[in-house]
Fold this sequence. Notes:
With 174 residues, this protein is an all-alpha fold. It is 80% helix and 0% strand. It is elongated and about 50 Å long. It has helices at 2-9, 13-29, 35-48, 53-84, 93-114, 121-130, 135-160, 164-173. Helix 2 (13-29) packs parallel to helix 4 and helix 5 (93-114) packs across helix 6 (121-130).
Amino acid sequence: MEPLIHTLESLSPLLIYCLLFAISYIENVFPPSPSDVLVVFGGYLVGLGTIDFTIALVLTTAGSITGFLTMYKIGDWFGESIIEKRKFAFLPLESIHTVEEWFRRYGYWIIVINRFLSGTRAVVSFFAGLSKLKILRTTLLCGFSALIWNCMMIYAGALLGKNWNSVAFYLSTY
């Protein structure tokens, strides 16, 4: 891990910002990914003065929203046919219907808490699109949730500085 850390510390800020955006996007489309740990490491680089807190926060939040909307649109456009063709064969059909019912009842609340539920980001965004939740309201709530979460992760990394492994341990446990 140490060689990787030294390599990342030596990267240009522009490349680091691009990586933070990309990993925040990817985590919403191709789970699971170690994105939260990498965002915390971005906070570590903020603490070192390598990159700027505000730019890192804006880009991770933009990546999160963009990734969320990608899966939202996939759910919106193809969700019914994916479920009908049983592309989720590993999930019982009754479980899929249960999730659909949750979205009919609590859809927007699920969007808000989604960021804080590990491993659910891509699934929630897919079902939000499938459930035809209003895209503007969904985007705003997703953005709010991602902003709060990313702020916490970047700030934690900045505070802990070289002790970022402690945050990585707790995030992997979470």
